[in-house]
Model the fold of this input.
Amino acid sequence: MTSSHLGTRADPGSFRDPTNRVFHDGDQVLRGLDPQAARDWAALAASAFFAGLLAEGKVCGTAQVDPAVLPGWTAVLRHERIPFVSHPYEWSFGMLRDAALLHLEILRRALPAGFSTKDGSAYNLQWRGATPIFIDIGSFTPLTDGEPWAGYRQFCQTLLYPLLLQAHLGLDFQPWLRSRVDGIEPDQMRRLFRGARRLLPGVPTHVHLHGAMQRRHAGASSADVRAQLRSAGYSRELALATVRGLERLIRRLDHREESSHWVDYQRTCSYTAPDRVEKERFVETAVQAAGGPRLVLDLGANDGRYARIAARHAAVVVAVEQDPAVVDTLYRTLRAEGDQRILPLVMDLADPSPGGGWGGVERAGFTTRARADVVLALAVVHHLAIGRNVPLGQVVDQLLGCLRPNGRLVVEFVHPEDPMARRLLANKPDGIFPEYRRDVFERLLAARCRVERQRELPSGTRTLYQVVVGD
Amino acid sequence: MHLAYLDAGSGSLIVQAVVGGVAGAAVAAKLYWRRLVDRFRRQPTDRG
Done:
């Protein structure tokens, strides 16, 4: 079923469950429901547990609207708009863990009320700043007593297994999730957890037994197994016990980096106090000048100092940083503060998230999603141009490409004489970057946009620019 | 009856009984016992 209403666009990531589908109409997020999904929604909307989740902000704001807005669907819902859609492979360990715990909490509250969720995907969750929210309202379904959770396998593959990888083995989970839209298979996990590792919490059951059962019953139809489990006495209480067991396990899982280069960056980098004061003032003025921007992207956010300054004047700030440990520290601080404006994300600017899933568009790539009113690129240009050998003009193009028309870029150019630039240059052959000069950078900016303001920091080795791009 | 859009996986369904503690293990044992009994019951007719 589709909607051909003028101006509406089907979300490319919403097709797996044919009973409902998400559409975008301008800034509106709509969900079309078929007759079955409309009946399920009516039951859900009348339930007390769902009203509680809505009031607590744990599920995305949802209201039923006139079905005429999406022809061909029985009922239509309008959802709260998520200001910046992110993917689980852009989250830190603490983020994935909190997202998993929210999914389980929702299920734990749904089961006694006679509801379940059809799936258990990490993609069911999004963020309001550093606060997770469950967005897949179409996933709620009346519970058929005597049946285990249909989403368990998906929950393991996209949430539990990545957490086990990081907590038990210290492996960053992001590349695993990024390369497989359906997550990590139990068979792959079994190979990683051999020997004494078999006994680590959660591994004997959720990994080894799960994998063995999958192999053993690969030929059995899941409808037959459901019927057999029902007649053997599988109950709602057992389903709840499984959910509680998963919650206990995930609460026990933890992973904190002792230290990484970037965790200490703000402390060890070469800023003097006057430089920092001047830079903070410059950034704040630039964000203010944007007149209440809806979205600020802080690329290379480090400890989030400038993201926090931007958040004083912006609706939403997305703080992108490549070091998962730094992002995790920032996330935990923001989460403890109950932040709803700053979304920290893990991503390497020289290797941004590509499009993924079906047709390469089911999960949109970063450059498709990045349409900001203001982009902050502080102390990142030299890392890309010198550290990663990206031609300076392409660095500027990439940064400007993250802006909406009339958007502003605040960019810092670290002169080749700066100690940090010298340290990077010392790792490369002499004279390899003759174009890495302030005058070249300024020419590149002037050719592409209008420089509104610029200021050399007191130390004399860094310059800030505020530029605006045309339509 | 709701039709699930997702293949829950037969093994993933059964393992949930096992991880559900003692009561769950009892359900799993019952399921396997019944399967075993069914197999023996079916065999004579298969041969005949």
